[in-house]
């Protein structure tokens, strides 16, 4: 199957300190209809990798080298205007905290509609019909279109963000810790919704998480990052059942068991430093 996204030898560093590599030689690919999870602890470079794909690296940082090929064309070097067209239309995005992305003084129907009128030029009845259908498709009754974000639960707000992110039927969805702020039951519902949408729309999904429980639920393929580098990648079955790298094994040891107990063994970072990467 042709790759939807190919990240090749991506390296990111602060503009002021180009030798301090925050993302180092990262390569992976994503196919339509599949979910690749990037997993690793805080600071391992997951978000910077995703932000690089979206062309949204903070100003102080730069892509030192590497290519990002989406649907057969490189995204590197696109102007801001060209990249704005790709984002939202061909690549959807959802983040951890929906409240910071939603405007509190506008109804959710208006905000979902704004995405459709901006990117697809819809208006009037066609717009209202599409907004209603989109809200229903993410499990929000269409009559809630007139609600404001603070009248919704955290899970419902994330559903609204998902509706906005899929409004233009993007080929790829990037989700950066979209369920971290939600309680476990709601988290499971949102993961199920994303998995269902991915299959129905044949989207490729790049899913960032630090949680191997989430990986087990949603991933087809897994990329494990440690200190800016990929230490292991493969199918979810291989990585979870037969982890090759000591860092992956250490992370898996920290996943709570069925009774919610954490493994007693802490990660031995000094030993990992010496492990081959
Ligand atoms: N604007 C920035 N300027 C300098 N360093 C940064 C900047 N943003 C991130 N970093 C550093 O880059 C490294 C990778 O950060 P990144 O946000 O990708 O980690 P992460 O794996 O997504 O972690 P988290 O799960 O906490 O978001 C970290 O060491 C972080 O401190």
UniProtKB/TrEMBL annotation:
Membrane topology recorded in Swiss-Prot or TrEMBL: Peripheral membrane protein
Top-level taxonomic group: Bacteria
PANTHER family cross-referenced by the UniProt entry: DIPEPTIDE TRANSPORT ATP-BINDING PROTEIN DPPD (PTHR43297:SF2), OLIGOPEPTIDE TRANSPORT ATP-BINDING PROTEIN APPD (PTHR43297)
A GO term, aspect molecular function: ATP hydrolysis activity
One Gene Ontology cellular component: plasma membrane
Subcellular location: Cell inner membrane
Protein name, UniProt field: ABC transporter domain-containing protein
Keyword Acyltransferase: no
Keyword field: ATP-binding, Cell membrane, Membrane, Nucleotide-binding, Transport
GO annotation (BP), single: peptide transport
Ranges where the ABC transporter domain occurs: 5-252
SMART domains membership: AAA
